[in-house]
Specification:
This protein has two domains: 3-170 and 187-222 and 270-281, Rossmann fold (3-Layer(aba) Sandwich), CATH 3.40.50; 288-314, no CATH class. The chain is built from ten helices and nine strands. The chain has helices spanning 3-25, 34-44, 66-74, 87-95, 143-153, 171-180, 192-201, 221-229, 246-258, 294-302; strands spanning 56-60, 79-83, 112-115, 128-134, 154-165, 205-218, 266-278, 289-290, 312-313. The protein has a seven-stranded mixed beta sheet with strand order 3-2-1-4-5-7-6, sandwiched between helices. It has a two-stranded antiparallel ribbon with strand order 8-9. The longest helix is centred in the first third of the chain and has 23 residues, at 3-25.
Length: 314
């Protein structure tokens, strides 16, 4: 990629982040949706798999801040960082901890800091042991670039935990959009196997992917769509420009209500993908050369019978 292409990509990324930030600003007026909270709780149940006690933890896309509380419970002595590109949502998240032990905000153990920035921004290095991200990957323009940026935010041997929506998410709504001939459609979500491949391509090691299906029901299509609003509308080509007319909205509501179960309740499916991987201590080989951290080389040199190595060629 030449300098012109890099500059164009940087401008496109900046416009995307600005659009995503503006879209997420609107979420500050809603309470956290159940599916977002449930995804965070299920991800938190996996944190004890990591035996090491983290000292610095980052929540990438912390939204309303509930994940910061879960991370605080798991790592009470760690510095917990929350990066949220929406200033309004960042303010909501920060307010959850403003009344608790304010001296910790000065940077000591157990502090919680929320910043209105994106975790992919190189100007805000986090240098953390654990990077956590709950349903935020779908807000990003290029997953591969985001995963590579998250890897850079991690220390060697640092762990990544994230959730994302899978392809079966909102399949009922997708079918209703087709029946109602909506100008917009539900965006396509990645398969967990594709995400695992992307983790490896981004330089992560030992990726583990698994999936949960969560089925939620509402008394009416209107109630379901109201709660979906709290998840936000990701800037995406699947969304038609302009506002939806009242007539097209009613067609969608009628299509969803028509697909309700025998009990009259509207059911929507969410496929929750859970991803877990590590940043390897040894960086991936590039053109036959693998790089090693200075501290790793020192540890190698201290081992009996081994001499210091500065470079390894394949």
């Amino acid at each position: 990629m030449d300098q012109h292409d890099q500059s164009l990509a940087a401008r496109q990324q900046a416009r995307w982040l600005a659009a995503a930030s503006l879209a997420r600003d609107r979420l500050a007026q809603f309470d956290p949706p159940f599916i977002w909270l449930e995804a965070g709780r299920r991800m938190a149940a996996r944190l004890p798999l990591l035996r090491a006690q983290a000292q610095r933890v980052l929540d990438a896309g912390c939204a309303w801040g509930d994940g910061l509380g879960l991370l605080r419970e798991q790592y009470p002595q760690a510095l917990i960082l929350g990066y949220e590109p929406s200033p309004r949502l960042a303010q909501v998240a920060a307010s959850r901890f403003a009344r608790r032990a304010w001296p910790r905000w000065l940077g000591g153990h157990g502090a919680v800091r929320v910043s209105p920035v994106d975790a992919t921004d190189p100007e805000y290095p986090a240098d953390v042991d654990v990077l956590w991200s709950n349903l935020y990957l779908g807000w990003q323009r290029e997953r591969g670039a985001v995963l590579a940026a998250w890897r850079r935010q991690l220390r060697p041997d640092g762990a990544l935990f994230f959730t994302a929506f899978g392809p079966d998410t909102l399949r009922e709504l997708r079918a209703a959009c087709a029946v109602a001939h909506c100008p917009s459609s539900v965006m396509d979500f990645p398969d967990m196997h594709d995400l695992g491949d992307e983790l490896i391509h981004a330089g992560f090691a030992d990726p583990v992917m698994d999936m949960d299906l969560v089925r939620m029901s509402w008394s009416s299509a209107e109630a379901a769509l109201v709660e979906l609003r709290a998840l936000g509308a990701v800037p995406h080509p699947a969304h038609a420009p302009g506002l939806r007319t009242r007539r097209s909205w009613q067609r969608l509501v009628d299509a969803l209500d028509a697909a309700a179960g025998p009990d009259g309740r509207v059911v929507l499916t969410f496929e929750l993908i859970h991803g877990h991987a590590f940043r390897p201590r040894t960086e991936r080989a590039d053109r036959g050369v693998a790089t090693f951290g200075v501290e790793q080389l020192r540890e190698t040199a201290r081992q009996p019978g081994l001499s210091a190595v500065t470079e390894r060629k394949k």
